[in-house]
From TrEMBL:
<dbReference type="InterPro" id="IPR050764">
    <property type="entry name" value="CbbQ/NirQ/NorQ/GpvN"/>
</dbReference>
<dbReference type="GO" id="GO:0005524">
    <property type="term" value="F:ATP binding"/>
</dbReference>
<dbReference type="InterPro" id="IPR011703">
    <property type="entry name" value="ATPase_AAA-3"/>
</dbReference>
<dbReference type="GO" id="GO:0016887">
    <property type="term" value="F:ATP hydrolysis activity"/>
</dbReference>
<feature type="domain" description="ATPase AAA-3">
    <location>
        <begin position="42"/>
        <end position="172"/>
    </location>
</feature>
<dbReference type="InterPro" id="IPR027417">
    <property type="entry name" value="P-loop_NTPase"/>
</dbReference>
<protein>
    <recommendedName>
        <fullName>ATPase AAA-3 domain-containing protein</fullName>
    </recommendedName>
</protein>
<dbReference type="Pfam" id="PF07726">
    <property type="entry name" value="AAA_3"/>
</dbReference>
């Protein structure tokens, strides 16, 4: 049992070291992202634009072999832009599900507080239930699944505050 723990610690240290080669000066954010991924949780980072949050999410995905999806939250973003849509395929004569970016294993939810509460709720529902339901068909999210969400400081123009109940969906902040 101790040997397995030591091997796991070694792998985690290698992972943190690998990501830290790209993300310099953000050791706590790197460690929190790995902890959240291992524990099946989600991470929320509040910081000003341009400090490497997107690069952190991409680096974690690459280093762990996870698929990567990015959602750029804007005031006109729709819930279906996150979850995906069902469209009619004229060749087959059937409806097909086209997955949205939430169907990746590592999802960057960038500038989450720039979109409306209705659209935010589509993300939070997927995070909580580990699935999305489109036209009465349930699609499970891949495992592992982690959302790394970013917020702009509330002083920035065009932001929507997140209620405490939604902030509780994140394992680490």
């Amino acid at each position: 049992m101790v040997q397995n723990g030591t091997a796991a610690q070694t792998k985690i240290k290698q992972l943190v070291d690998n990501i830290s080669r790209v993300i310099i000066g953000k050791q706590q954010a790197v460690e929190q992202s790995i902890i959240a991924l291992i524990c099946g949780g989600h991470l929320l980072i509040e910081d000003v634009p341009g400090v490497g949050k997107t690069m952190l999410a991409r680096s974690v995905a690459r280093s762990t072999g996870c698929t990567f999806g990015r959602i750029q939250f804007t005031p006109d973003l729709l819930p279906s832009d996150i979850t995906g849509v069902t469209i009619f395929n004229q060749q087959s004569g059937e409806f097909e599900y086209r997955p949205g970016p939430i169907m990746a294993q590592m999802v960057l939810a960038d500038e989450l507080n720039r979109t409306t509460p209705k659209t935010q709720s589509a993300l939070f529902e997927a995070m909580e239930e580990h699935q999305v339901t489109i036209d009465a068909v349930t699609h499970p999210l891949p495992r592992p699944n982690m959302v790394l969400a970013t917020l702009n400081p509330i002083e920035y123009e065009g932001t929507f505050p997140l209620p405490e109940g939604q902030l509780d969906r994140f394992m680490l902040r």
